[in-house]
Amino acid sequence: MSMSGGRLRWPADTLNALRLGRRLVTEVPATGPGRRAFVDIRPMTTAADADAWRQGWTRSEPDRIFKLEHWDYDAEQISGFDHDIGATLVKATTVTGEAPLAAALEAWNLRPEQFLHPWQTDDPK
Hints:
About 20% of the residues lie in helices and about 30% in strands. The chain contains three helices and six strands; from the N terminus they run ββαββαββα. The strands form two sheets. The chain has a four-stranded antiparallel beta sheet. It has a two-stranded antiparallel ribbon with strand order 1-2. About 15% of the residues are buried.
């Protein structure tokens, strides 16, 4: 992570993923033993995204609406289809735009470079 003008800077690949509407995830400390926790950033799709998808392309949007969710899971349920059994939503917020997203991450003590594509993590979603 680097700072530019007092703002967090994203690695190019993950920033592009967010702008293209792709979800990112990071593992965070869980609430206790036998638990695992993840925070995900989910760009919300719009009608314009659906139109682009039907036409065979992906729309880039820097001012997307982003939903951040911090979930805590039973570690034994992570790898199965029932990962939601015993799962707890710790906190959630919704922001519009990249600057408010960076501010929300700072408030949650997270950094942009912590976030990976879902397939690079054990996130069950």
